[in-house]
């Protein structure tokens, strides 16, 4: 739906019609119109693009950073492990929302800065899980054998360690997308994420605050869409975990945002 | 064993503390604007060079980075986080006041969460793979996925606008409980969802243990087995759950306090950001991080103390 927003959307999201402002849901405007007379259904569809884009990109970059550092820490151990893990602990010491807020506050608002802030918060999860799994894999026979026949460390990490830690990382990534969408919506809702003119779910909610009693559909529909997509990613992540029979502790997964 | 663990964990705190102080301090340097210029800019847009310079010197902003950091650290270590550039009030006192309010709200939220999560988590585990379990698990999933701002507004619409039971927002001098109920429910139900899932899985773990089989084998009634043996052991991880919920509650406080106008630390941070009060943002973030770090530290210690058989080697 996000991909085909351009075709599916009944109206142009920039199309404003002040005579049509704050219309309740009707057959013309299924989800009603906002304070500038824009069609909410259209905005929600375009908003899906922004939110999913933010979710995927933030998780991919965090995953790349986190997994690289986590595998290095777990594989080499020693002082490198010590440094990387204390660094991770330091980032985890900040409640994630406060850290993301502080970074967006100081960098200035905007989509890119918000994504940067979310990456800074999110990579630690991947670093921890990758390190833990690497420690497990390292003791396995095939890794020891591979090193014994003279494979280089880099080769062992890429050929043997990475493929074997991929399932917990994937589960985390799925749940992470949901988390990031939620956090991004929260930041935009507070007025610190994307510009209000961009169709984004959190920003739409923020714009709808003023009209919460008179025109609740302004907040209701984007809110429901956030919930549904986060629910979908969480459900999928839970399913993946059950399917891959990972003995992952909830402590690793929950309580991030 | 416990003492050793305690000391090792305490030693880990030190580099982390230094690093988080450094991170908090550096925040000001990633800002695109110069705090002195921003502060001294008049509403009409122009600023007076001399006034900016004087402000810089008065706040030590003219010195090199590391000196500023060391000076700042020296003060921060004794609880002096500087003064707000806006109101000239002590950052530490303001933050402390706000945190006290957040704490009040969080305790109530935590109580609500435990009251919901413990019975549902236990029932869900005992009735594993039945309709009851499915309903509980779906409810928890819904709770985890529900954005707190959506829930907050749904509750305002329901309780304040439609049935006029509770005030929509406000602080009520921090003593009027009616202002606390809605925000505490929003925060509490969110963490209840997380807790319920954890209690369910720990209960399932315990139910599979040998001593439960033994107790059953001895002919004890199922009720006694569950209450005396399973529940007691399954509740040990609740300590961890509470520790985790603190993070969840603190994060949630940002949005929830802003919506409900509760004068807590989340609200303070958001307002300080909107008014470019950098010292206040820096002080609040550092304060929250230190509190969060210490809480997690104590939770870990209590957890090990409650579970003597758990071994914590360096790489666990």
Notes on the structure:
The complex is a heterodimer of chains A (257) and B (316). With 257 residues, chain A is an all-alpha fold. Helices cover 71% and strands 0% of the residues of chain A. By secondary structure, chain B is mostly helical. Chain B has helices spanning 2-30, 35-40, 49-58, 65-77, 91-126, 131-145, 148-162, 178-207, 210-217, 222-234, 236-260, 265-274, 278-306. In chain B, helix 5 (91-126) packs across helix 12, helix 7 crosses helix 8 (178-207) and helix 7 (148-162) packs across helix 11 (236-260). The two termini of chain B are 15 Å apart. The model of chain B is unreliable at 311-316 (pLDDT under 50). At the A-B interface, helix 3, helix 4, helix 7 and helix 9 of A face helix 1, helix 6, helix 7, helix 8 and helix 11 of B.
CATH architecture call of chain A: Orthogonal Bundle
What would you say the CATH architecture of one domain in chain B is?
A: Orthogonal Bundle
The residue-averaged pLDDT of chain A reads 76
Annotated CATH homologous superfamily of chain A: MetI-like
Q: In CATH terms, what is the fold-level topology of chain A? A: MetI-like fold
The profile of the biggest β sheet of chain B is: none
Order of helices and strands of chain A: HHHHHHHHHH
Low-confidence stretches of chain A: 249-257
Main beta sheet of chain A: strand number and arrangement? none
Number of helical segments of chain B?
A: 13
- Oligomeric state, counting identical vs distinct chains: heterodimer
CATH class of one domain in chain B: Mainly Alpha
Structural class of chain B: mainly alpha
Number of strands of chain A: 0
Please, what is the average pLDDT of chain B? 77
Instruction: Describe the global form of chain B.
Output: flat
Give Rg of chain A in angstroms. Answer: 22 Å
State the CATH class of chain A: Mainly Alpha
């Amino acid at each position: 739906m996000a991909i085909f927003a351009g075709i599916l959307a009944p109206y142009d999201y920039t199309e404003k019609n002040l005579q049509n402002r704050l219309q309740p849901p009707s057959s013309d405007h299924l989800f009603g119109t906002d304070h500038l007379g824009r069609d909410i259904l259209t905005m929600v569809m375009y908003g899906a693009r922004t939110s999913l884009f933010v979710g995927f990109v933030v998780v991919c970059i965090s995953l790349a950073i986190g997994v690289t550092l986590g595998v290095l820490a777990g594989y080499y151990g020693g002082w490198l492990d010590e440094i990387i893990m204390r660094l991770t602990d330091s980032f985890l010491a900040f409640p994630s929302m406060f850290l993301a807020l502080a970074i967006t506050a100081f960098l200035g608002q905007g989509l890119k800065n918000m994504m940067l802030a979310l990456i800074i918060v999110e990579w630690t999860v991947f670093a921890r899980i990758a390190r833990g799994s690497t420690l497990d894999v390292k003791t396995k026979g095939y890794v020891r054998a591979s090193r014994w026949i003279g494979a280089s460390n880099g080769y062992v990490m890429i050929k043997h360690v990475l493929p074997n830690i991929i399932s917990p990382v994937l589960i985390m990534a799925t749940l992470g997308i949901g988390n990031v969408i939620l956090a991004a919506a929260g930041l935009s809702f507070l007025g610190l994420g994307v510009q209000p003119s961009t169709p984004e779910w959190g920003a739409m909610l923020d714009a709808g605050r003023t009209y919460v009693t008179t025109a609740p559909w302004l907040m209701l529909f984007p809110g429901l869409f956030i919930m549904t997509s986060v629910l979908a990613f969480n459900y999928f992540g839970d399913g993946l975990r059950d399917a891959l029979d990972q003995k992952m502790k909830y402590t690793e997964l929950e309580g991030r945002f | 064993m416990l003492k050793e663990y305690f000391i090792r964990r305490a030693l880990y705190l030190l580099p982390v503390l230094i690093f988080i102080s450094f991170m908090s301090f550096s925040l000001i340097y990633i800002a695109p604007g110069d705090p002195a210029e921003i502060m001294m800019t008049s509403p009409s847009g122009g600023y007076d060079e001399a006034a900016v310079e004087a402000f810089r010197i008065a706040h030590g902003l003219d010195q090199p980075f590391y000196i500023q950091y060391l000076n700042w650290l020296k003060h921060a270590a004794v609880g002096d986080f500087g003064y707000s550039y806006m109101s000239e009030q002590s950052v530490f006192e303001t933050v402390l006041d706000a945190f006290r309010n957040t704490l009040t709200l969080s305790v109530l939220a935590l109580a609500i969460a435990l009251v919901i999560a413990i019975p549902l988590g236990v029932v869900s585990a005992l009735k594993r793979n039945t309709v009851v379990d499915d309903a509980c698990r779906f409810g928890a999933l819904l709770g985890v996925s529900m954005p707190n701002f959506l829930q907050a507004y749904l509750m305002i619409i329901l309780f304040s606008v439609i049935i006029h039971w509770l005030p929509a927002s406000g602080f009520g001098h921090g003593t009027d409980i009616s202002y606390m109920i809605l925000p505490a429910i929003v925060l509490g139900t969110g963490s209840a969802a997380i807790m319920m899932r954890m209690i369910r899985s720990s209960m399932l773990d315990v139910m599979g243990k040998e001593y439960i089989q033994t107790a059953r084998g001895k002919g004890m009634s199922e009720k006694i087995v569950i209450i005396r043996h399973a529940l007691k052991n399954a509740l040990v991880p609740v300590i961890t759950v509470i520790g985790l919920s603190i993070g969840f509650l603190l994060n949630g406080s940002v949005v929830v306090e802003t919506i409900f106008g509760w004068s807590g630390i989340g609200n303070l941070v958001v307002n300080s950001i909107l008014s470019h009060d950098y010292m206040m943002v820096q002080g609040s973030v550092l304060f929250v991080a230190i509190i969060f770090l210490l809480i997690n530290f104590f939770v870990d210690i209590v957890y090990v103390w409650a579970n003597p058989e758990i071994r914590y080697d360096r790489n666990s």
